[in-house]
């Protein structure tokens, strides 16, 4: 039999371990993807049996059977990442001395450096020729701004090679996000249209109904919507939408193309972004508190819960095409999607100003934009293509229609969870869906310049500050409602 792989989770008593990481590992174990050992590390005084019981009580009923089969491979070590990890080293050697090890840092960002430094001091990161592999997975946020991200990268590179560092962004493990890449480069009917000649604009939306309940306020108040979502998840999606075709599926070749996009993004000239914060309002018939009334939020908070911006990618393919990004909490509906809006024909012969036309304040009448491609990421994983068709009858009246593809309808059941896919890639040493050092720094370079605009208030249950609609110009339309 192959020796087991050891997955060491720091912060094992936290919510992420029970909610995401353990179910992902159970899925891998059930599929026989690898022979695994899970070693949880936290400061609480627990035995192996106590840790297993704690996890069992937090898992959903559907995972209990898989957990019972796997629980003999679950172990626990009491330890502090800011202290001596010699005890952890001895326990790992006792469980398997010459095996690959994946260290997962499910920790507060200020503990990343102490954890890696103490792992190195304990000899747990050494990887010379012939040694079993050693890799470290780091959760977001990777830095607070460009300067802190660069400092963190510099420190990590003193102790690890770049190929040992796996900066995780769980959005990249979602099936529909991965399908962006395959859809673009495997379908000749779309790739020739994927440029400034045929695309009018691109919208990327991550809308949430939830606020900052369940104890998240203390963390969220230090980051806000820009750092929590736009700087990482949304810019990664944008990079996949806009990147040039790679010459191969080599991980570095793919990541090179993503970095090129991130370095080419510019805010639209003279276009401020829009920042907002939700106030009291109504969600689903229930009255909810405003952000400043949430437990853990400071009265002098400047954190935004909504951010929207208009940007441009300054390169040959995309110059002049607006990319509009929007994320907000306490919106009327939860959905994440990419909407690619194609240009209208130069001369519209049919039903130019039909029912869907609208008149702007300056008197300009806008016709329907029938051609759009929507990639739904969550909660539904699907693709849809909009187009116009003639309404039956003697007149030449057009109506919108749609071709749709749904992952569940086509393949049955749920797609694999994002963390399951990403953990498997990390175990196999495939960094394609993880962030490289220059990729992180390029994202922060943009985010640092994004938003200096005033903080506007919007009622919970609305679509955010109405000023965000002004990011659309002329007949471009408005934000998607999912």
Walk me through this protein's architecture.
There is one protein chain. By secondary structure, the chain is of the alpha/beta class. The protein contains 13 helices and 20 strands. β18 (382-390) and β19 form a beta hairpin.
Question: Outline of this structure?
Answer:
The protein is α/β, with parallel strands linked by helices and about 475 residues long. It is built from 13 helices and 20 strands. The chain has helices at about 15-30, 50-60, 65-70, 85-95, 110-120, 145-160, 175-185, 215-220, 225-240, 250-265, 405-410, 420-430, 435-450; strands spanning about 5-10, 35-40, 75-80, 100-105, 135-140, 165, 200-205, 265, 275-280, 280-285, 285-290, 305-315, 320-330, 335-340, 360, 365, 370-380, 380-390, 400-405, 455-460.
CATH class of the largest domain: Alpha Beta
Query: What's the CATH architecture name of the largest domain?
Result: 2-Layer Sandwich
How much of the sequence lies in strands comes to: 15-25%
Helices and strands: which structural class?
alpha/beta
Please report the number of helical segments: 13
Rg estimate, integer Å: 24 Å
**Could you describe the largest sheet, including whether it forms a barrel?**
10 strands, mixed
User: Which fold does the CATH topology of the largest domain refer to?
Assistant: Dihydrodipicolinate Reductase, domain 2
The coarse overall form would be: globular
**First and last CA, distance:** 49 Å
Mean pLDDT: 89
Indicate the low-confidence ranges by residue numbers: none
Number of strands: 20
Number of domains: 2
Helix content: 25-40%
Q: Write the CATH homologous superfamily of the largest domain.
A: Dihydrodipicolinate Reductase, domain 2
């Amino acid at each position: 039999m192959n020796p087991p792989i050891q997955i060491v989770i720091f912060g094992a008593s936290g919510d992420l371990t029970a909610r995401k990481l353990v179910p992902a590992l159970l899925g891998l174990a059930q599929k026989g993807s690898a022979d695994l050992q899970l070693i949880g590390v936290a400061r609480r005084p627990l035995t192996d049996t106590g840790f297993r019981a704690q996890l069992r009580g937090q898992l959903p009923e559907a995972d209990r059977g898989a957990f019972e089969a796997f629980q003999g491979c679950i172990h626990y070590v009491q330890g502090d990442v800011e202290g001596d990890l010699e005890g952890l080293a001895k326990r790992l050697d006792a469980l398997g001395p010459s095996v690959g090890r994946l260290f997962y840092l499910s920790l507060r960002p200020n503990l990343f450096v102490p954890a890696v430094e103490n792992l190195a001091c304990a000899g747990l990161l050494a990887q010379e020729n012939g040694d079993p592999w050693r890799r470290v997975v780091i959760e977001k946020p990777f830095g607070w701004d460009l300067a802190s991200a660069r400092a963190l990268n510099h420190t990590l590179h003193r102790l690890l090679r770049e190929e040992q560092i796996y900066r995780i962004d769980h959005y990249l493990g979602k099936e529909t996000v991965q399908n962006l890449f395959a859809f673009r480069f495997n379908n000749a009917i779309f790739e020739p249209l994927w440029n400034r000649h045929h695309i009018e604009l691109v919208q990327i939306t991550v809308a949430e109904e939830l606020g900052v309940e369940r104890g998240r306020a203390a963390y969220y108040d230090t980051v806000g919507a820009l750092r929590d979502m736009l700087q990482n998840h949304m810019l990664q999606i944008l990079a996949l939408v806009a990147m040039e075709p790679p010459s191969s599926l080599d991980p570095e070749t793919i990541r090179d193309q993503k970095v090129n996009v991130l370095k080419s993004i510019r805010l639209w000239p003279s276009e401020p972004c829009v920042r907002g914060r939700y106030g009291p309002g109504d969600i689903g018939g229930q009255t909810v508190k405003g952000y400043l009334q949430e437990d853990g939020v400071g009265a002098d908070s400047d954190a935004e819960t909504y951010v929207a911006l208009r940007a441009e990618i300054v390169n040959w393919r995309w110059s002049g095409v607006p990319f509009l990004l929007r994320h907000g909490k306490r919106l009327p509906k939860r959905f994440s999607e990419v909407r690619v809006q194609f240009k209208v024909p130069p001369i519209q012969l049919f039903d130019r100003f039909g029912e869907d036309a609208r008149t702007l304040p300056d008197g300009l009448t806008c016709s329907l934009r029938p051609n759009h491609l929507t990639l739904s990421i969550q909660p539904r994983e699907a693709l849809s293509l909009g187009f116009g068709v003639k309404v039956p009858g003697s007149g030449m009246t057009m109506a919108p229609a749609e071709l749709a593809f749904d992952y569940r309808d086509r393949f049955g059941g749920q797609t694999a969870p994002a963390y399951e896919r990403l953990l498997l890639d990390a175990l196999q040493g495939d960094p394609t869906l993880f962030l490289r050092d220059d990729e992180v720094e390029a994202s922060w370079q943009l985010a640092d310049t994004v938003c200096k605009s005033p903080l506007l208030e919007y009622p919970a249950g609305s679509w955010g500050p109405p000023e965000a609609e002004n990011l659309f110009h002329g007949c471009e339309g408005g934000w998607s409602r999912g």
